[in-house]
Structures are given as C-alpha cells and as structure tokens.
Amino acid sequence: MASKPPSPADQRAYPRYQVTLRVHMADLGEVTASVTKDFSEGGVFLHTSAYRPPGSLIPLALIDPTSSEEIPVMAQVIH
After folding, report:
1. Which among 76, 8, 7, 9 is positioned nearest to 43, based on CA atoms?
2. What order do you get walking across the sheet with 70-76 strand by strand?
3. pLDDT tens for residues 7-65?
4. Which residues in 1-33 are b (16+ Cβ under 10 Å) and which e?
5. Residues 30, 73: Cα–Cα separation, whole Å
6. Are 47 and 37 in contact (CB under 8 A)?
C-alpha cells in the first residue's frame, strides 16, 4: 500500500499555533486594528480588510494580551 504524501501543514518549517492577538497596523497614515491567526516563528496569518500587495513592508504592533504592551515588529506581505 502506498503511503500518502505529507500534508502542507506537515511540510512547514515551523509549527503553527492558534493564537489570537490584537494587532495595530500603522501605515499610510492610518491605524487599523486586526487579529492574528496561525502564528509561528516563520510568519503569521493576519486577517484584515486592508489590501497590501505582496512584498509590502508593514510596521505592526502586536498587543500583549496580559499587559496591553505594544510590541513593534516589521512584517512583509507574502500572499
């Protein structure tokens, strides 16, 4: 019996975690709130209605859920 190929999740370089964090995107003179999903060392899925083309660099602030501290990061749009 042939084995099944690994699923895309099994091929990821880093494990993904189901984490919800508030995020502020402050670019183009606006502050947009969003939430994360599928967080990993290699990236994060960020649900937002604001379109940014692939390759765009976006300054973000992740909001610590316990202290409300803003953690600044620079993100790049992949998809």
Report:
1. 76
2. 43-47, 30-40, 22-27, 57-63, 70-76
3. 655 567 888 888 888 888 877 556 666 777 778 888 888 877 778 899 999 888 888 88
4. eeeeeeeeeeeeeeebeeeebebebeeeeeeee
5. 17
6. yes
What's the rounded Cα separation, in Å, for the pair 21 and 45?
11
**Quick one: tokens of 63?**
């909001």
Q: Is 10 helix (H, G, I), strand (E, B) or coil?
A: helix
pTM: 0.67
Q: Work out the burial of residue 34: count CB atoms within 10 Å of its CB; fewer than 13 is exposed, 13-18 middle, 19 or more buried.
A: middle
Which H or E run includes 63?
strand 57-63
